[in-house]
Structure formats: structure tokens, C-alpha cells
Amino acid sequence: MPVRHFSTTPKAGYRSAALIALALSLGGCANFAGIGPKARMADPQAMAPRSATILATPAPTAPAQAQAAWWTRFGDTQLDALVQQALQTHPNMRLAQARVARAQALTEAAGSSETPNVNASVDGTRQRFSANGIYPPPLAGGVYETANAQVTATYEFDLFGKNRAALDVALGLTRAAQADAQAAELLLATQVTRGYFNVLRLTELQSLAQRNLDQREQLVALVQSRLAAGLDSPSELRNSESSLPELRQYAESLREQVALARNALAALTGQALDLPDLKPGKLTAIVGQPAPQALPLDLLANRPDVAAARARVEAGLSEVEVAKAQFYPNINLVAFAGFNSLGFGNISKAGSEQWGVGPAVRLPIFDGDRLRAQLKGKSADVDMAIESYNALVLEAAREVADQVATLQSLERQRQEQRSGQASAQGLYDIAAQRFAAGLGSRASLLNAQFAVLNQERIGVELAARALDAQTQLLRATGGDIAAH
């Protein structure tokens, strides 16, 4: 920035004031009329699907702790330990924290523009002065030392709010980075939770498949003994054996899926290989939550990705203000004081003092087209940020509506499944009593048990889907559906 120092005599002071006034008036030559963001941020309530029962009364403001450790609501200490380990060791979390630290550093740098900038310098030079230069004899053609020691202070008057707006930009980006870090934590915790439930689901299905296979093999052995006794035909044996390859293949595929699911969960928790200490449990032992009948869309404000998008809109609006402030003059005050001498030994002698003070003015007189283009670009950035926010809110509302609908449907499906399992268990109990009394065959007993196992398999699948839907609903609402 060019600096011009003015004399402090009254006459010169009047000239300085006149120049500043002229600068302020000439600054109006570049104007930004008609340029600004056009998009408007959407109201979440207006973007809700009409068929969804999520338009309850507004939610009370939730404290930050309401979203913390939401996975503990499932009441599984093994899950709690896995999530905590993932949050402490996964590289994505350290990356998010590094981005927050970088944003905070930029905020500190932006804040420094609101305080005076003071520098000190000390230098000494031995040089030959040109005999044909601007210096007269005896300097001309001679070799002399020069010494300089001074303190310089500059201060920019933030008359039009440019520095304050720049600080608001940095603060907004810091809030966005912090929200992004929370979003990364929410996503990672969701992935670990869903992965853990998937391991439990596959492990239970594997156990049921093995029981089904064992019973089918018992049935085949029974038919073989009946064939040897002349009580069954070879075709009956072939019919009973026909399902064995498919059941064995299904059991083997489940073993593969269990191994892959455990490896994926291990990677999420920062471990290279399988989880040797993981103890598979029952999905039915997990504390599930009933499907909410209504959820206020105010909960979407708890989502960290929505908060990050909103913070970026606010930062973009501040960038527009910075761009507008460029249309006005920059006025700096520069002052310096120190010592200057010809010869190192003379710097401490009387008369070596030097000082100066004066304003520095920058005028955007013939820069209007560039500044207008820059403001148009910043306004377009805000429009894009607002529309990205609107799209995110719309998608978030859909996710909440989808998970509420899924949970309500699964609750009804599980009621029907429990009824079906009770019927199958009743038929099995009758078959067992008839078999014990010698009135029924072992084949009938095994077939009745197959029906019970099939209902148990359906029950495991529905329980896993319900827990998965609850997890995704917690993620969709930012981890807070406790009171609704």
C-alpha cells in the first residue's frame, strides 16, 4: 500500500484533511448498487413431506450434551467401548480436528487486523556512493557506513467495517469446521453402531442356519433308516437330501459375511484385523426405542452438517460485506521513530533522531469493474451456499420422515411376526407331545421345528432392521430424539 508522509504544520494538516475528504468523495465513483445475493434460506417446516408425522410442536432448545454419546441409549457396554475407541483412533477424526485448528489460526490472524501493527528494525550497511549519483561530495565516490534503528507502527481505520467483516468470515468458517468435526463424529459413531448390529445379526443368522442344517441332516438320517427298514422309497430320500447343498451353501456364505463384517468393524475402530475380543450377543437384548409418533423438524438444527451449512452461509454473507467495503477508501496511519546516521559510531549522538507520522490513502477510483465483478462472485457464492443449505435441509427432512415411517411399519411387522412365531411354537409343542406319546413321527416333529426356526430368522431380521432404523433416525436428527 503506498505511503505518503505529510507535514504536521497547520497548513499541511489542512491539506491532509482535504485530501482525505476528497478520497471519501471519490470513493463513491465505484458503486455496488443492484449487486447482492438473491437466494433465500428455506424454512424447514415448509420443506417437510406432508405425509410424514413429524410436524409436532417446536422442540425445546437442546443443550450440546443432549447429542453426546447417543449410542449409549442402546444399553450395550460392548458397543459403547467400540464407538469410543473409534472416535479416539480413526484418522478421519484427527483430520477433522486439524481442520478446526487451522480455521482457528486463520481467525486469530484476521483478528490481528483490528490492532496496531508495530515493527522494529536495526540495520547497518557499508557501501560506496556513486560519484555520479544524487549525493554530493564528500559522499560522492566515497565508502561509508550507514546505520538505521527505528520502530514503525501502522494502523488501519476500519471506517467501513472491512476488517470486522473479514473477522466474521473467519469466525463463520471456524464454526463450520467445528460443526464438520461433529458431523464426522456423528457419521463415524453411526457407522460403528450399524456395523456392530450387523455383526450381531449375521452371527445370529449363522447360528440359526447351522441349527436348520443340523435338523435337516437328522431328517435325512431318519429317512435313510426308514428306507433301510423298507418304510420309505428312494425318491423320498432324494427329496429330503435335495435341500442340503443349498443349506450348506447358505451357512458358508453367512460365515463369510460374518468375517467381512467383523473386519469392517475392526477397521472403523482403528484395528487392522478381526476383533478377537468381540462377544456376539442377542439383538433382542439391545434396548430398543419405540417408534416416535411425531418429531418436530426443529430437531434438524441439531444436525451438525446442517449447522455447518448454515455457518458457511453466514461466512459467505460476511465475505459479501468485505467485498462491498473494497469500494470505499482505505485510510492508514503510519508513524515511525528511531535513529539514522552516517557511520556506525554516530547513531547514538545527538541529532541522529528521526521520526515521521502521516496518513496513507488508497482510492478505488478506476477499479470499479473489477470490484463489481468480485462482489458479483461473492454474491453468487452466497447463493450457492444457501441453495446447498436448502437442499441439505430438504434431504434431512426426507431422511427423518423415511426412518419414522420405517420404524412405525417395522413395529407392526414385528407384532405380526411374534404372532406367527407363537403359532409355530404352539404347533411344535403339539408335535413334540404327539411324538412323546408315540402318536406322531419324528419327521413331523422336525418339520414343525423348521417352521419355528424360520420364524426366529424373520424375527432376527426385523429386530436388526429396527435397530438400524433407530440408529439412522438418531443420525438424521443429530443424535437427539430422546424426549419425543
Give an overview in words.
The chain is an alpha+beta fold and 484 residues long. It has a single domain, classed as Up-down Bundle (Outer membrane efflux proteins (OEP)). The chain has 9 helices and 4 strands, in the order αααββααααββαα. The protein has helices at residues 10-26, 77-89, 91-111, 162-228, 234-241, 244-268, 304-325, 368-436, 442-476; strands at 117-128, 143-157, 330-342, 353-362. A 4-stranded antiparallel β-sheet has the order 1-2-3-4. Helix 2 packs across helix 4, helix 4 runs antiparallel to helix 5 (234-241) and helix 8 packs antiparallel against helix 9 (442-476). It starts with 9 loop residues before the first helix and ends in an 8-residue tail after the last helix. The model is unreliable at 1-9 and 49-66 (pLDDT under 50).
* Mean of residue pLDDT values: 80
- Tell me the number of strands: 4
- What is the molecular shape? elongated
- CATH topology value: Outer membrane efflux proteins (OEP)
* Category from helices, strands and their pairing: alpha+beta
Please describe the biggest sheet, giving its number of strands, its sense, and whether it closes into a barrel: 4 strands, antiparallel
Task: Output the helix-strand order.
Answer: HHHEEHHHHEEHH
- Per DSSP, the total helix count is 9
Portion of residues in beta strands equals 5-15%
Number of domains: 1
N- to C-terminal distance: 59 Å
The CATH class assignment is: Mainly Alpha
Radius of gyration: 38 Å
Task: Please identify which CATH superfamily we are dealing with.
Answer: Outer membrane efflux proteins (OEP)
Share of helix among residues? Answer: 55-70%
